[in-house]
Specification:
mainly alpha; 255 residues; 71% helix; two-stranded antiparallel sheet; 2 domains
């Protein structure tokens, strides 16, 4: 990301796009390059890096496009104080987006459609299932493009759909109290109050997310990720559940 979009772009990298890079490299016919590089935060320390021509560049562009659309959404939704950091960084983000969309025009269209559909779902005060649909459909489209094999493409589309659903619902659960306090949309608050959800240990949200993880694991078991299988298994079988538990533990501390 730093090579293409400048040193500050490196600080925007998320686990979501790291995982997407892993998935993408798993379906390449050539092996990636591994090397030791200086840590950006601590230049005295060397760390392992993995790079594959075409893949890492594409994922970096997609990450910057996604960041741009999220920043645009934040500029519309947040109060002026919350908008201030986004407003200050937006010229840089917009410059990155203009460069990235030339390389990934289809991804930019997918991302723009997702944001538009998300705004529509929220304006209709949708519940968890329809509210999660735009993100789920978006990741389904993206993951489907990672392989040329017809069978794997179908599985990837299903896997991406469920991964997008998991990400959206987990974020909604994590932001529950904050959204209620700021009177912002949250799909779980369309049927329940925060107090009602707390009284049942957030079970409607947790059960929905657990069901999504179970279906996601079934789809994942049909993927052939070659040498990347162990890393991906650790993320899917352990990381997703652990992330949910971290959200619930955080809520216990603030209860």
């Amino acid at each position: 990301m730093g090579r293409q979009y400048g040193i500050f772009a490196r600080f925007t990298l998320s686990y979501d796009f790291t995982f997407l890079a892993i998935l993408s490299m798993a379906f390449q016919k050539t092996a990636p390059d591994f090397s030791k590089i200086r840590c950006l935060i601590n230049p005295l320390k060397k760390c392992s890096a993995c790079r594959q021509n075409g893949v890492t560049e594409r994922i970096a562009s997609q990450a910057m496009i996604t960041l741009y659309h999220k920043c645009r959404d934040q500029l519309l939704d947040e109060n002026w104080l919350a908008r201030l950091p986004v407003s200050l960084s937006f010229p840089f983000v917009r410059w990155c987006w203009q460069k990235a969309r030339q390389k990934e025009p289809q991804y930019d269209c997918f991302a723009a459609d997702m944001m538009q559909n998300q705004q529509l779902a929220e304006s209709r005060l949708s519940g968890p299932d329809p509210a999660a649909e735009p993100t789920a459909h978006f990741l389904s489209q993206i993951c489907e493009t990672l392989s040329d094999d017809p069978d794997q493409k179908r599985v990837l589309a299903r896997f991406g759909y469920l991964l997008g659903r998991y990400i959206y619902l987990s974020d909604a659960l994590d932001d529950l109290e904050k959204d209620a306090k700021k009177h912002r949309f949250n799909p779980f608050l369309q049927r329940y109050t925060v107090s009602e959800l707390k009284s049942v240990s957030y079970s409607p949200a947790v059960e929905s997310i657990h069901g999504t993880i179970a279906e996601l694991e079934k789809a994942f078991s049909l993927l052939n990720l070659n040498d990347w299988q162990p890393i991906a298994e650790n993320i899917v079988y352990y990381g997703l559940k652990q992330s949910l538990q971290n959200i619930l533990r955080k809520k216990e501390k603030i209860a």
